[in-house]
Amino acid sequence: MSGNYRDFTLARDEVSASSAGGAPFLLCYGATFIITGILAFFLPRETSALIAMFQGGIALPLAFWLERRWGTKRMSPDNPLTKLSAQLAVSQALAIPFLIVVYNVNPAQIPVILAGLGGVHFMPYGWLHRTQIYIILGSALALGSFALVLLLGLSTSYPYILLFVGFAYFIATPLVYRHAKQIVTTATP
């Protein structure tokens, strides 16, 4: 039994090492959320909501490119967590039809929905990368964006939620990167 646990731990180590703990994704998505938040002050709500919904089209390829540079090794094809980590990574794409419905009802709700989806998305990464950082980030995104809506109102909070999400990602980036580096250093024989 301890051999299986050791293999599973090594598989998680490999996921963290190959992805730099997810830091490239936090950095790239943080940048696109901040840019979208700034644009939201100047563009019509419908336009900025569409940009917010699809900003991942820019962030995702940049994140994959950066992951190749920051990751300390590649994940082996026989890693038992390969499929799970890929499913976790793309799970948010399943929310696009829901976002389209929300957009058609009230585009001002898009940022708070994106923040909530991000919060839910990050929870399993706390387990995968063995860090509370993702659990704190996910909770902060969901609860912080909701608090902004309660404090400022749905329409006024719109750009501030996008900025909040982006800066939360920026704050988490070096923390998860450092954590991944520590896992790699500890796991190296």
Summarize the structure in words:
By secondary structure, this protein is an all-alpha fold. It has one domain (2-187). The chain contains 9 helices and no strands. The chain has helices spanning 2-19, 23-39, 45-54, 56-70, 82-90, 96-105, 110-128, 133-152, 154-187. α1 (2-19) crosses α9, α2 runs antiparallel to α4 (56-70) and α2 packs antiparallel against α9. The longest helix is centred in the C-terminal third of the chain and has 34 residues, at 154-187. The chain is elongated. The two termini are 21 Å apart. The model has no long low-confidence stretch (mean pLDDT 90).
Low-confidence stretches: none
N-end to C-end Cα span: 21 Å
Helix-strand pattern, N to C? Answer: HHHHHHHHH
Tally of helical runs: 9
Q: What kind of sheet is the major sheet?
A: none
Strand content: under 5%
Q: Summarize model confidence as the mean pLDDT.
A: 90
Structural class: mainly alpha
User: Residue share in helices?
Assistant: over 70%
The number of domains is 1
- What overall form do the CA principal axes indicate? elongated
| Rg over alpha carbons | 17 Å
Give a count of the beta strands, DSSP E runs of length 2 or more.
0
